[in-house]
Write a structure and sequence with these properties.
Elements lengths: L3 H6 L3 H26 L2 H26 L5 H46 L6 E2 L6 H7 L10 E2 L1 H20 L21
Antiparallel strand pairs: 1-2
């Protein structure tokens, strides 16, 4: 078993620590989300209604596209199903909002802890020279002029995004395929 002193003696010890902490944080955040959201009956019913509406909408659109002359009644039914899907997606986003605050607090505390542990320390070397904005993010808080130096903040950010997204997919907590609208859906071209 690797101890912290063994990790610090490794060439990539700091990087491995940041990645490990990112994995642990993702697991904790998904556990919090499961407790506050995913195990509740409200979430399960919203998710099933979104899945049903998305499937129904997909079937209606394929039927309509198969028939060249689309009737107005079919178009109205499709619009009703689309609006129902948007409403359910918005409700799901609002439902997830409460756990989002708790998860944000956890991430804020972990980021502050990591920031104090790795302040001004190079934790990784990038295999490329980043450009403009990416370089400002990857070199944040570091001394020196080597653009391939990578700060803890950049590595943690990349790990958090990729690990949490993949963990959600693995555990089956990824948003339903029809729930892409979120709190602020794109405006409908038909109504504008």
């Amino acid at each position: 078993m690797a101890t912290p002193s063994m990790l610090s003696s490794l060439k990539y010890g700091d990087s491995l620590r940041v990645v490990g902490i990112s994995i642990c944080t993702a697991v904790v955040c998904e556990a919090i989300s499961w407790i506050l959201i995913y195990r509740t009956n409200s979430y399960k019913s919203l998710r099933s209604s979104i899945d049903k509406a998305a499937k129904k909408l997909e079937n209606m659109k394929t039927e309509t596209s198969a028939k060249i002359a689309a009737k107005k009644s079919k178009t109205k039914k499709i619009d009703r199903v689309e609006s129902s899907l948007k409403e359910s997606s918005r409700d799901l986003s609002l439902f997830k909002f409460k756990s989002g605050a708790v998860v944000a607090l956890v991430l804020f505390v972990v980021f502050g802890l990591l920031n104090s542990l790795f302040e001004g320390k190079v934790v990784a070397k990038l295999p490329f020279k980043p450009f403009g904005l990416v370089m400002k993010m990857s070199h944040r808080g570091l001394q020196g002029d080597d653009p391939t130096d990578c700060s803890m903040a950049f590595l943690y950010f990349l790990c958090s995004i990729s690990i949490r997204t993949n963990l959600q997919k693995f555990l089956g907590f990824a948003p339903p395929r029809g729930a892409s609208a979120g709190l602020f859906p794109m405006p409908d071209a038909k109504t504008n």
